[in-house]
């Protein structure tokens, strides 16, 4: 691409797109349009300005092109510091083109903050947990997705120059917006030997010819020219290092899986984000919003990693099934099994490096733009896209989508075929789906999508572990000797440590510490049967017990304490809020 | 004898180097081991003394606040972007091999002294890859610990690094405690009571002792030294076969500034064409280890059912890579270049974990030459084998992920103790050179004896082996490979051969200082105990007086290996006039080196880009062929032909160029007017 021309074009494009909105972004935020990167930054500033007492806004790190990656923490300091509460992590827009995660993040923030003090459920939730929200991970990608001409699927990558065609030149043959309309559409050429003909149902579309039929068109591919004169078109575009294959767990080099980068965390922004997350051990669940297909994916990301322990699957299922109800049409699925294998993705890293539960929602379903009446069956015609795109489109045909564009977006989602004189191909036509389509719902549908997905996050946040401590018995059993029983209970679905983390000994368990100036713990341990007084004693240092409080469950301990006076039982957890109880031995 | 024309300039450079370019290498004596900061200071002195050809780079700071310093030597030190290939030398990545750092410094001195070794390449030399761990050799008490200073909670309790070893007997060493215990599994070796062995119940033996590392239960949890100081073993923190979740691995490969800096350095310095590690493995002697499970076998690919339908394959059959390529080719969009790597990635075949056969050829070839080299240096006495390569090591990362010829050298292991009746036994090297038939001809009796000596399980008999050889399931080459990986069988009385070797060395060369005699000690929690055993480092660190001789005899091999690097040149050109103003140009691109361009692994992982061959001249238009022709691989001493058809109004001179990132390049001017 000729850089200068592209720059001029992009400036014109932005200038044209944002005439009135420059007035500024104010709270409550609006969800009738997609936010440019600058607008996301402005929205975060506006939220922080409107709710300074509940929010902290910080720069996690900078991208490969130097743009700031922001995180907003929602926490009520009056109920304790953020690290003392369960942390709910949310990010979006890891792939540059999958922008909805940004809007979902902003909506979640706007909803939580706007409802605080007005809605009891939200108020109680915000007082108990903290939210860590990173609306745009791939800030370079979002910037270029809006600013440059793109397809709805281009510009996923990190901006790490990579020699895709291995010719010693780097990123030298981008798609080119040769007709200057801000979109990378499709080029076709009239060709009696082509594999496509005009769709008899809708002349704007093409269908594959059947054997024996005469062809009409050859599809030349995405809009562009052979910038480096190697006889190939658009073969070395931006990147490609996939930000969701660059994480440092189960990472594999690019010959095993393309796009993983030269080494784990070669993306400066991804590395900074990982370190930022790693420094917040209270994060118990994470959501990373992508598009598309209508799925809530959980790990494992690769079969060879083995299924998670049953206790963790139960937790993931509980939240995943509820998510399916909150967002009808979306399916709760296993990443490797139901979609494809990935190495070095973010949620597996989160699961296996921090011990948190994690999901990837793939938001937006093609069915929502299928233009079907309640009693109508799917119409004929070719599925939208090919390969994976076709699968994710779940059988919605191009004809149906085009009618949706005609009647609900007044034609804006599809560019009619337009003649163009191409330097190499000569007389061609350019047309097809525009950038802001296909994987991005029409703007009027944004609100429903962001609201429901934010409610999924809130449901999971309500199931962050909340532990109560009871001293159920203090009984004198001898001279200066007391039997003390405790119960730690958790009424929420998420336990205080994942079974994966326990299995791999990832981090210390929770602790129950007993202290008292005039008291000594002689013996103590897990009370497995209170009726028959069965105790599994911890031989060494019984005054510090290591434990996990299960989800929807309890764990009990029994101690023999020698001495007098007050004894304090203190429960400390990475995830749940700490609690303590003091009793008198008498 | 007349000198070949092309050799002349080389000779002139060589002589000039001896005459003028002799660099000052300070007064470096190799009669002691240097602390990490002393090594760094020595590098800075060398750079200061040789400002025109050497400079230092400070790569990172460790958790313990120590600097990772790299010395660069070569003609392009003033340039960031290099045109010449480079050799990267790393040393002491685990921080537990003091002689490795000395070897790197010795090499730096050699390279500075020998102008011809650096006239056409850059050397990057890192003498201490793990300074936090390396510093422990100079601290008290002495014990082996390869972990940097990042704190890590090994036992996942309420304290970090709280229960390390303690020097209870005050001798400055951490050795072993033995305590009599009814559950003890250990006993003294009969005939050598200083060495312990596990009692073998089947031979009527009974254990007496429990063994513990010397120390206290500092945190009162009933365990000894289970959470000592230190975090990540940088020697195993690289991404190939990285051991996730091991206590000394760190949270992810590259979590430490020391390793991450190297990732970045190699990414930025694509001119690096060869790596060498001074440490404990030795790829110069023994090729990288094979036989790991999980390798993608490209000759027996099973196609998953969901993909099979898509590419018209049979999920019950196995295919070769070539067959899969044929199945996929018609489905690929026109113009898309299919590669084995793409298919492997698409089918999820996973990572390569064993060295590729083609690469083993050059490893074997060089190993034979190195053995001759050692013989000439009189350093070929029998010694214990170098350590096998480790998962997550630098040397494996370099080969598998960077696709480079990766070499390593250990400088010293204990001499093999005098053998008892070992004359008859076949070594893996001998076995490998035999044909299957020659081996079978030894007869069952001899083969059984050989199997026993090699430590094969009792159930493994000559009959099976012969059947395996005849049935094609086994060959002498595979058997030799298996033998190399087999742990050494214990001596008849059950002593660990390494401990026996150490004891022999200690008695003969160290006046007994390599082994602490067992002495009673009253332990606060274990009661009556005895402390003694091998002195840390006695088995991998020779006395200082031996350093210089060992380095002088072995380190120069690094220069020999470097000479073998792939070197892309234009071997010949030809022009043919096809018609008015139309010419055919032929260019033979050769690899004048003795290593392939790139390694087979480098082709497989696609990290080493092809040689780019261009043709250009005033008014010259290419009719056929690519302006940038790509030559993906050239075998050692091999050549590849590149052709173009061009049109030119006049019979001008055109320039052809062959460029690579890490194997030099070449250019020639061709006169179209001279066409035949």
Keywords:
heterodimer, A: 586 residues, alpha+beta, 5-stranded antiparallel sheet, 23 strands, elongated, disordered N terminus, B: 676 residues, 6-stranded mixed sheet, 4-stranded antiparallel sheet, 22 strands, globular
How would you describe this structure to a colleague?
- The complex is a heterodimer of chains A (586) and B (676).
- Chain A has 586 residues and is α+β, with helices and mostly antiparallel strands.
- Chain A is 24% helix and 27% strand.
- Chain A has an 8-stranded mixed sheet, sandwiched between helices. In chain A, strands 15-16-21-18-19 form a 5-stranded antiparallel sheet, with no helix packed on it. In chain A, strands 8-5-14-13 form a 4-stranded antiparallel sheet, with no helix packed on it.
- In chain A, strand 13 and strand 14 form a beta hairpin.
- The N and C termini of chain A lie far apart (83 Å).
- The N terminus of chain A is likely disordered.
- Chain B has 676 residues and is α+β, with helices and mostly antiparallel strands.
- Helix content of chain B is 27%, strand content 21%.
- In chain B, helix 2 runs parallel beside helix 3.
- About 3% of the residues of chain B have low confidence.
- Classes of the chains: A alpha+beta (586), B alpha+beta (676).
């Amino acid at each position: 691409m000729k850089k200068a021309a592209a720059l001029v074009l992009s400036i014109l494009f932005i200038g044209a797109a944002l005439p009135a909105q420059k007035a500024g972004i104010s709270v409550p935020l609006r969800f009738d349009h997609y936010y440019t990167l600058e607008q996301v930054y402005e929205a975060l500033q506006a939220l922080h300005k409107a709710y300074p007492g509940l929010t902290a806004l910080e720069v996690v790190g900078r991208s490969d092109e130097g743009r700031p990656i922001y995180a907003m923490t929602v926490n009520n300091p009056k109920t304790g510091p953020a690290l003392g509460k369960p942390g709910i992590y949310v990010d979006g827009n890891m792939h540059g083109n999958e922008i909805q995660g940004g809007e979902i993040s902003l909506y979640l923030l706007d909803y939580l903050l706007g409802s605080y003090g007005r809605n009891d459920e939200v108020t109680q939730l915000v007082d108990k947990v903290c939210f860590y929200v990173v609306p745009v991970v791939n800030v370079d990608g979002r910037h270029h997705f809006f600013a440059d001409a793109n397809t709805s699927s281009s510009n996923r990558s990190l901006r790490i120059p990579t020699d895709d065609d291995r010719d010693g030149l780097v990123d030298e043959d981008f798609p080119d917006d040769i007709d200057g309309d801000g979109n990378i559409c499709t080029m076709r050429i009239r060709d009696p030997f082509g594999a496509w003909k005009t769709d008899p149902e809708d002349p704007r579309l093409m269908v594959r010819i059947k054997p024996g039929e005469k062809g009409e068109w050859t599809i030349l591919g995405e809009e562009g020219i052979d910038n480096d004169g190697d006889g190939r078109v658009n073969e070395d575009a931006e990147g490609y290092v996939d930000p969701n294959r660059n994480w440092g767990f189960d990472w594999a080099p690019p010959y095993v899986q393309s796009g993983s980068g030269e080494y784990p965390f070669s993306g400066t922004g991804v590395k900074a984000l990982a370190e930022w997350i790693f420094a917040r051990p209270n994060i118990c669940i994470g959501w990373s919003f992508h598009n598309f297909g209508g799925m809530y994916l959980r790990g494992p990301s690769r079969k060879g990693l083995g299924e998670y322990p049953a206790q963790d699957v139960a937790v993931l299922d509980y939240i995943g099934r509820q998510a399916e109800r909150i967002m009808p049409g979306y399916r709760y699925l296993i990443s490797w099994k139901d979609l494809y294998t990935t190495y070095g993705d973010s949620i597996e890293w989160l699961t296996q490096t921090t011990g948190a539960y994690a999901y990837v929602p793939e938001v937006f379903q093609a069915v929502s733009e299928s233009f079907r009446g309640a009693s109508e069956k799917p119409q004929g015609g070719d599925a939208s896209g090919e390969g994976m795109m076709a699968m994710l489109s779940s059988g919605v045909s191009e004809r149906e989508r085009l009618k949706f564009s005609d009647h609900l977006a007044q034609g804006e989602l599809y560019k009619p075929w337009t003649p163009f004189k191409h330097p190499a191909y000569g007389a061609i036509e350019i047309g097809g789906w525009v950038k802001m389509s296909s994987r991005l719902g029409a703007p009027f549908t944004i609100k429903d999508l962001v609201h429901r997905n934010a409610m999924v996050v809130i449901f999971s946040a309500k199931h962050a572990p909340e532990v109560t401590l009871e001293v159920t018995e203090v009984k004198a059993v001898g001279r200066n000797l007391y039997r003390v029983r405790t119960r730690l209970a958790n009424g929420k679905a998420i336990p205080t440590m994942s079974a994966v983390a326990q299995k791999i000994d990832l981090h210390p368990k929770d602790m129950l510490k007993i202290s008292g100036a005039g008291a000594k713990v002689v013996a103590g341990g897990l009370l497995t049967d209170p009726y028959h007084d069965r105790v599994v004693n911890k031989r060494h240092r019984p005054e510090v017990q290591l434990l996990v409080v299960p989800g929807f469950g309890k764990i009990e301990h029994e101690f023999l304490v020698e001495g007098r006076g007050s004894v304090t039982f203190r429960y400390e957890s990475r995830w749940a809020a700490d609690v303590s109880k003091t009793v008198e031995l008498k | 004898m007349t000198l070949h024309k092309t050799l002349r300039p080389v000779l002139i450079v060589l002589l000039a180097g001896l005459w003028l370019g002799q660099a000052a290498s300070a007064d470096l004596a190799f009669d002691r081991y240097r602390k990490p900061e002393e090594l760094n200071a020595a590098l800075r002195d060398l750079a200061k003394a040789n400002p025109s050809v050497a400079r230092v780079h400070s790569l990172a700071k460790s958790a313990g606040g120590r600097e990772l310093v790299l010395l660069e030597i070569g003609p392009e030190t003033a340039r960031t972007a290099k045109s010449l290939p480079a050799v990267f030398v790393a040393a002491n990545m685990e921080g537990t091999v003091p002689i490795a750092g000395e070897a790197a410094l010795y090499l730096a001195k050699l390279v500075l002294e020998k102008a011809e070794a650096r006239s056409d390449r850059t050397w990057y030399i890192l003498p201490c890859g793990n300074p936090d761990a390396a510093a422990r050799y100079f601290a008290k008490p002495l014990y082996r610990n390869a972990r940097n200073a990042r704190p890590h909670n090994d036992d996942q309790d309420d304290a970090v690094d709280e229960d390390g070893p303690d020097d209870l007997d005050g001798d400055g060493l951490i050795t072993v405690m033995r305590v009599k215990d009814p559950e003890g599994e250990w006993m003294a070796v009969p005939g050598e009571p200083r060495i312990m062995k596990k009692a073998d119940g089947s031979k009527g033996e009974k254990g007496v002792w429990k063994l513990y590392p010397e120390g206290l239960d500092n945190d009162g949890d009933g365990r000894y030294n289970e959470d000592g100081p230190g975090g990540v073993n940088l020697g195993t923190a690289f991404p190939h076969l990285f051991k996730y979740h091991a206590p000394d691995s760190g949270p992810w490969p590259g979590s430490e500034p020391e390793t991450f800096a190297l990732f970045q350095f190699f990414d930025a310095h694509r001119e690096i064409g060869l790596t060498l590690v001074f440490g404990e493995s030795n790829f110069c002697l023994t090729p990288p280890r094979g036989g790991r499970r999980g390798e993608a076998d490209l000759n027996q690919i099973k196609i998953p059912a969901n993909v099979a339908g898509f590419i018209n394959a049979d999920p019950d059959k196995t295919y070769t890579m070539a067959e899969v390529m044929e199945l996929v080719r018609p489905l690929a969009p026109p113009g898309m270049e299919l590669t084995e790597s793409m298919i492997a990635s698409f089918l999820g075949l996973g990572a390569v974990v064993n060295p590729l056969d083609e690469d083993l050829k050059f490893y074997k070839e060089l190993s034979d030459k190195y053995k001759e080299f050692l013989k000439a240096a009189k350093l070929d006495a029998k010694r214990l084998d170098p350590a096998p390569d480790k998962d997550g090591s630098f040397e494996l990362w370099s080969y598998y992920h960077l696709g480079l010829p990766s070499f390593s050298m250990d400088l010293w292991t204990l001499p093999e103790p005098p053998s008892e009746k070992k004359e008859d036994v076949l070594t893996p090297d001998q076995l490998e050179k035999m044909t299957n038939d020659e081996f079978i001809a030894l007869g069952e009796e001899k083969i059984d004896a050989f199997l026993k000596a090699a430590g094969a399980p009792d159930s493994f008999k000559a009959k099976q082996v012969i059947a395996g050889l005849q049935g094609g399931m086994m060959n002498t080459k595979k058997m030799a490979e298996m033998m190399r990986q087999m742990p050494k069988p214990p001596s008849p009385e059950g002593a660990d051969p390494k401990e026996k070797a150490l004891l022999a060395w200690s008695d003969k060369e160290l006046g007994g200082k390599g082994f602490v005699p067992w002495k009673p000690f009253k332990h606060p929690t274990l009661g009556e105990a005895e402390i003694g055993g091998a002195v840390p480092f006695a088995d991998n660190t020779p006395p200082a007086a031996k350093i210089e001789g060992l380095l002088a005899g072995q380190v120069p091999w690094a220069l020999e290996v470097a000479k073998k690097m792939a070197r892309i040149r234009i071997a010949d050109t030809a022009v043919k006039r096809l018609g008015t103003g139309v010419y055919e140009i032929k260019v033979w691109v050769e690899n004048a080196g003795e290593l392939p361009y790139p390694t087979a692994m480098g082709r497989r992982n696609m990290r080493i880009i092809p040689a780019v061959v261009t043709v250009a001249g005033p008014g010259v238009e290419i009719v056929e062929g690519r302006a940038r022709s790509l030559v993906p691989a050239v075998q050692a001493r091999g050549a590849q032909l590149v052709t173009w058809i061009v049109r030119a109004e006049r019979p001008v001179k055109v320039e052809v160029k062959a460029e690579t990132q890490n194997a030099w390049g070449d250019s020639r001017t061709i006169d179209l007017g001279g066409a035949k």
